[in-house]
What does this fold into?
Amino acid sequence: MGDDLSAVRAVLVPASPANAAFDYFIAHARAAAFQLIPRTSEVRAIELQWPDRKRNPFSIQTQARHLNFYLRRPILEAHHDLFDAAATRFGPIKPNKLGEYRTHIRSVADVDVMLEFLRQRGAWPNKPADRRFVAKTFDPVTKSHFLRSARHLAAGFDDHPFGQSTDYDLLFEGHRLPPKAVFGLAASEALGFPVRPENFSAGNGMVCFRRLRASGFQIVAKAEANGAMAGRSARYVATNENLINHALAPTMRWLIAAALDGATMTYGQVKQRLESEVGFSTVFATRIGLVAGELMNRIQAATPNAPLINTLVVNQQDRLPSKGAGSYMARRFGNPQLAAEGYKERHPAKWRAYFERAAAEVYAYSPEAWSALYAKVFGEALPNARISEERAKRHDGNEDDFGAGVGKYGTGGEGKYHKALRLWVTANPGKIRRAFANARTETEFCLDSGDRIDSVYHLDDRTVVLEVKSRISNEIDLRRGVYQCIKYRAVKAAMDVRQKVPVEAVLVTESEISGEIAGLLRQHGIQHCQVPRERE
It folds into this structure.
């Protein structure tokens, strides 16, 4: 039967945590040089045999949704206190007729706990080489997995344990990536369990470089990478010192603009702007965590209770901040667990909830408050005109077609009645609804789609987008206004990371609306407010 494990694995529910735990355990057993002996006569199990003697110290028996893990007589005889230690750690049991200890394993995390328990007691091989998976383990990893991994890293994903490369870079679409991170993330996806830095080696002749190069990726020494990527003259080399000295102020301006737009920035976006606008040499997206953290440290040194603007730097994939934000949220919200390793992965819903609390505080800050905070942190003024300029930059490249950008009002520009109504609605939120009276208001608010909203009300518990139609609007104009409300509401909601803070839409008119328009508004949940033509 050899090393064929398929009959033993077949008992497990496919794609279940127990299935991943089985494959993960087998990878570690092979790394530690155990021989794998399948048993399929009465039960489905794998016995682990010491490589230098015909004795089997461990076995795992597969059930549908868990593994039965046995400490067998050879290991208990070699370590006389192991049974009692296991009973203390994993719970007491009555020994079977062979005197063996048994416990359940349901997940990869359970495997990690068991192996660490055994290593600490000298019952499992514990040299660095005993944690490196054999090359066969990585057979399921394909070029498609490598491509997805490289794209995630190039886009700014940094929530991984691999760190920066030391001697070699992988060149990918204008980015220099750590080869070990590309390989490790790809392997984790392909295998269905976490592959960590200690589980494989990188370097010429190693499985990591062999497989990546065989899939067509270029891996070069760092000196060669610098030459290959050189295409522009950099003002600053992306050292930690230069990032701290020259990246924090522009990053804060960009994040202020994102905050006032109710949006976020990805690691990749910050990286791209540092390179293209500030003049840094290639910045690994993983270094942006340093920039965000040092920026927040400097802000808190000036104003300890300042909003956590660093949390607006998010991963492209999940639109959430990485684990580095955990210590800041832990102090802010009095929950030390947020700073614990792996909290984001173990409690994704709680992580999002705390992030949304942090984002709500950031979004509630006014332009004037941000300007004052920036001046306090960096000792230089940040005028409202500069803030408006940074907000406009967020939308550079948007095509101003009809209904968007400066072309919103058509070739004739904005009419006097529309402008008067727009400015009045922005200045008088309490006249639209009493509940809106304390809103922070803005006019001609630019969305990430390039559209401009006539007026926006920012409140703690909601955001309100308002489209105005003046006294000269006809039925076609009003119908268009309804659909503009629908679009603006959807785009603004997509920009806001707070999932539980609703975006409402209001169509404001100076004239009565027809039954058809009223029905359309009801159908799509759009509010209507008719205001008098003669106003104070």
About this structure: The radius of gyration is 30 Å. Residues 293 and 310 are 7 Å apart (CA to CA). Residues 475-495 form the longest helix (21 residues). DSSP finds 22 helices and 15 strands in the chain.
